[in-house]
Amino acid sequence: MVAGETSGDLHAAAVAAEIRSRDPALRMVGIGGSRMAESGVELIQHSDALAVMGIVEVVRHVPLHARLLRELRRRMQSGTVGLVVLVDYPGFNMRVARAARAAGVPVLYYITPQVWAWGAGRLAALRDTVTRAAVILPFEESLLREHGIDATFVGHPLLDQAAHMRPRADARRALGIPEDARVLALFPGSRAQELARHLDLFVQTARLLEARMPDLRVMVSVAPGLEVDARRCPYPLVRGASFDVWRAADAAFAKSGTSTLEAAVADCPLVIGYRTSPWTYRIARHLVRVPDIGLVNVVAGRRIAPEFVQDALRPGDVAEALAPLLDRDGDAGARMREGFRDVREALGAPGAAARVATLALEMRR
After folding, report:
1. The pairing of beta strand 41-46 with beta strand 84-87
2. How far is residue 56 CA from its own chain's centroid?
3. In 3D, which of 96, 126, 65 has the Cα closest to residue 2?
4. What share of the chain is helix, strand, coil (3-state, %, to 5)?
5. Which secondary structure element, helix H or strand E, spans residue 202, and what is its range?
6. How close are the terminal C-alpha atoms of the chain, in Å?
7. Exposure pattern of 183-203 as b/e (b: 16+ CB <10 Å)?
8. What does residue 19 show for φ and ψ, rounded to 5 degrees?
9. Which pLDDT tens digit goes with each residue over 282-299?
10. In this structure, what are the phi and psi dihedrals at residue 227, rounded to the nearest 5 degrees?
């Protein structure tokens, strides 16, 4: 099993736990994080060293990736590997898929590369290397099948994480927030690079809104283990409880990605912002084939939440978009919540990890 960052570790761990419950004697080895280790996966490499993003940033990790690929190739060629399960992390995992195919080892790819965003180049690579794909967005199954890939829509794993989501009042009590408070949540990113690029801009946006709404309370959701400089962030931090933050907030300012789907599942209106390195952005502009980057907008098929990307990410403009959403009973929030209903329906039913585990056990040699 190979997962390259925090979210992949979480999803792979859920699959590993399901497999372990059905076949406790089965040996699982791989690359991942602490959650995978707790679920019974013997780690070759901890994924903390692999959590990078952006075209330019990945280049710096080439030597480590090359060493790990050599080790995985050696294991797969030994004849002792019955199945490779890849989870997200496409830059590295597509190379692992090719190595597995060359060694005659079947490959199950869970959370496949976003071929719908980056064009058709990876579709041919998936067809040629992946035995089966377990996809998490509703339109991916038909797209991959049209290109000769055996794909199964398993539902989105967020629905399992949200199964025990607290009601709004309980989430507020858990975070020490009064029921009548007006609350803005900031989600600047789960990776150190995202936090470095976004935090100041997110804080400036919140400051502008505080000047307009003196009663506003602000909180920041950060991933466990991420260091945040208190001089840059005057607001309370909440670690490892993102759904409590979503449920407690009246509105949120969040980086693009899976967090935008969390907002839809938790029914919290949001504005989306993202900034990356100038070189990465210039390259991506020529490669990306979809008009929106927020997954909530991609799944909806229309722009539900406003997006501010790269140079457009200006605190004043973001504050203007957020202000009406902070009115819990306002029309702007109500319209966005209507769109959220469509997104939640499209994400399928809970049980993604169990479905992936079933596929894995069917496929192993």
Report:
1. unpaired
2. 20
3. 96
4. 55, 15, 30
5. helix 192-212
6. 15
7. bbbbbbbbbeebbebbbebbb
8. -65, -45
9. 555 544 555 677 999 999
10. -85, 135
pLDDT band at 277 (very low <50, low <70, confident <90, very high): low
Would strands 28-32 and 132-135 be described as parallel, antiparallel, or unpaired?
Answer: unpaired
The closest of 109, 98, 91, 92 to 149, measured between CA atoms, is 109
| pLDDT tens digits, 117-132 | 665 667 889 999 999 9
Residue 341 token pair: 């209903």
What is the separation of C-alpha 189 from the centre of its chain, rounded to a whole number of angstroms? 10
pLDDT digits (tens, 9 = 90+) for 18-60: 999 999 999 999 999 999 999 999 999 998 777 554 444 455 5
Q: By CB neighbour count within 10 A (0-12 exposed, 13-18 middle, 19+ buried), where does 264 fall?
A: buried
Cβ distance 354 to 283 under 8 Å?
no
**121 or 193, higher pLDDT:** 193
Tell me the residue ranges of DSSP E strands in the chain.
2-3, 28-32, 41-46, 84-87, 107-110, 132-135, 151-153, 182-187, 216-222, 237-239, 251-255, 270-274, 307-309
pTM, 2 dp: 0.84
Contact (CB, 8 A) for 4 and 88:
yes
Tokens of 180: 């009548």
CB 245 within 8 A of CB 175: yes
- Per the DSSP assignment, residues forming a β-bridge with 308 are 273
